[in-house]
Each structure stands twice: as structure tokens, then as C-alpha cells.
Amino acid sequence: CALVMMKQDEEGQEFIERIEKRLHALSYHMRSYFWIDFQQLNDINRYKTEEYSHTAVNKFNVIPDSIPEWVFDFMPTRGGYFVGNVSPARMDFRWFALGNCVAILSSLASHEQACAIMDLIEGRWEELVGEMPMKICYPAIENHEWRIVTGCDPKNTRWSYHNGGSWPVLLWMVTAASIKTGRPQIARRAIDIAESRLGKDGWPEYYDGKLGRYIGKQARKNQTWSIAGYLVAKMMLEDPSNLGMISLEQDKQMKHVFKRCSSWTC
């Protein structure tokens, strides 16, 4: 976005060069240090702590014992995702749908990483999609911890609202990411699930439960963004070129992602 706003003149060129240099550094940092897959998880599990100097493998002094147990069972052999950062040496290993979909759409994720994110969604379909696309994060924070992390918002009990709730508005992002990675069948499957319930349930804001089976206990009905998320997903699936409206310049050059693949079904 910064590159698009710059003037194409001598003064602008100086800043364009600075932006490109910074983008390269930031992309490398994110793709290297905030990415986790089976191999990376295996490596972190064997990290030594309190390493120093430029030769340190464990650059952020991540303590292996800080890795939650659920990650080892959740991580498929194929697939991966970007994790969050809470503080120095402390990573948030939860899956966040919004950040990972945006990483694909903005090309922050490399092609291999984008494909791995979609592999993860397919491999952990029940946990991340279930009966209503899509979990805003996984897994839910339980016991007393959710009160501390979420500000004690009563809607944020486990598997509800921002604590593992399922949000129909995320449907368009999953669809866009599916199209960009050439896997429209994932979008079609998610849309089919949404279509079976959204209208009948009155287009609620979010859903509760580990599988998203229940309408959110404080979810408002007839939510514009739930309706819009479904409509945008349908429009993109019917005409993949619509993806260009939410893509940056470097994405528009990847024309192959707009073509219908052999597995395309609408």
C-alpha cells in the first residue's frame, strides 16, 4: 500500500527504494520467525535456551516447555501457519484465521506457506470449520485464563465470541485465500455449510460451541457483515477475477490464480 501511494518521480523513487528494502526485511523476519509447521515445531522442541551471539539458533530464547501440549496433536505432517507474539520469548501458538488469511491475500506468506495454510485448514477441517465457517481462533482459552486474556468480557467464555467462536463474516476471506491458492473446492465446501444454516438461523453475528453448532448466546441477528461475507464469497467463487479488487499490485501479476482450475465447481 505504501508503494502504491508514492509518486513516480525522483523524490518518490528514494522512498520507494527504502520501502522495498524494509518490505524485504519484514517479509524475511515474518516468514522465518513467526512461521510454524511440523519441522519447525520439531526444531523448537529441541531448542537450547540462553544462547547468545549471531550464531544462536534459538534467536528469541523461546523455552521449549512453553509450547502448549495441544500444538503437538494439532499440527499435521503437512501444513503450517503464522503464530502470534505475546512478549519476548513467548509466542502465542493459537491459530488465528484473520491473520493467516490476510497473510495469503497480501502475499506476506510465500507460495509454499500459503499452500501449507490451506493444507492445515483441510487437514483440521473439523476443528477450524466444523458446522459453521470459521473459527476466529483455535483453540479456546479455558478455565480462569480467558478472563485475564480477554478482559473478562462475559461473551468470551470458551468456544464463544472472540474465544474460539465461529464467525460467518470470515467466509469471504477463506474463499479469497482458497481462490488465490488454486483450491476453490475448499471455498465451495465452506459455502455449502454456511448456506445450509445462515438464512434459516437469521444471519447471526457468530456461533458458539466447539464445532460452531449453536447460535451465539449474545449474537445479534440480521448482521450486515454476515450477509456481506456470504455474498462476497459467492461473487468471488462465481467470477474469480473479482479477487483483484482486494489484491495488491504484486498479486495482480499472478494472473494464473484467477483462472478456473480443473477442479472448479460452482
Automatic annotation (TrEMBL):
Its EC number is 3.2.1.26. GO terms for biological process: sucrose catabolic process. The keyword Repeat does not apply. Keywords: Carbohydrate metabolism, Glycosidase, Hydrolase. The keyword Hydrolase applies. It comes from the Eukaryota. Pfam families: Glyco_hydro_100. SUPFAM superfamilies: Six-hairpin glycosidases. One of its GO terms (molecular function) is endo-alpha-N-acetylgalactosaminidase activity. It catalyses: Hydrolysis of terminal non-reducing beta-D-fructofuranoside residues in beta-D-fructofuranosides. Signal peptide: none annotated. It is an enzyme of class 3 (hydrolase). Coiled coil: none annotated. PANTHER family: ALKALINE_NEUTRAL INVERTASE D-RELATED (PTHR31916:SF15), PTHR31916. Invertase that cleaves sucrose into glucose and fructose. Belongs to the glycosyl hydrolase 100 family. This is Alkaline/neutral invertase. It comes from Erythranthe guttata.
